C-alpha cells in the first residue's frame, strides 16, 4: 500500500507504539513536555480508567515533533499509584512506554481506540502550526493485563501523520 506523505501506517489489528513505528521508518521523533502533574481525576477520566472520582492520577501533555515539525499533541492519564515517581523521569528524552518499561517493567498488551475528526482549537493551531482545518483525534485506553485499564490517552494530530488499515476476514 502506498503511504504517500504519511509517517505512520497504523494496523488496527495490532498495537505498536508511535515512537517505535517512526524509528523503524528512520524518522527522528522528539517530544516537548508541555504539562505534567499529579492531580485528581474528574468524572470523565475516572470513568475511562474505572477508578473513583478524585483519585490521584499522573497527567502529562506533550508535543510530538517528527523531523523537527510539530505533528501531534498527546495527553496521557494514569492512576498515580501505578507510576509513582515517573514525574522525575525525563519524559522528553524517549518514548513514554519505554520509560514505563524501564522504570516499572510495564508492557502494554492491548489498546482500544476511537478515531475522530475534530476542528482545530486555538491552542492546537498555535502548537501544530495549522490553520482552521480539521485534525484527527485518537482516544484510547491501553491495558497491561485484562480487564483493568492502565492508561487513557488522547492524541490530536495533523491529518498527514497517520494512515489506518483494517483487514476484515470473511
UniProtKB/TrEMBL annotation:
Xref: Pfam families: UTRA
Gene Ontology terms, MF aspect: DNA binding
GO biological process terms held by the UniProt record: negative regulation of DNA-templated transcription
InterPro entries: Bact_HTH_transcr_reg (IPR050679), Chorismate_lyase_/UTRA_dom_sf (IPR028978), UTRA (IPR011663)
All copies of domain UbiC transcription regulator-associated, residue ranges: 24-163
PANTHER family: MANNOSYL-D-GLYCERATE TRANSPORT/METABOLISM SYSTEM REPRESSOR MNGR-RELATED (PTHR44846), MANNOSYL-D-GLYCERATE TRANSPORT_METABOLISM SYSTEM REPRESSOR MNGR-RELATED (PTHR44846:SF1)
The name this protein goes by in its record: UTRA domain-containing protein
Native source organism of the sequence: Enterocloster lavalensis
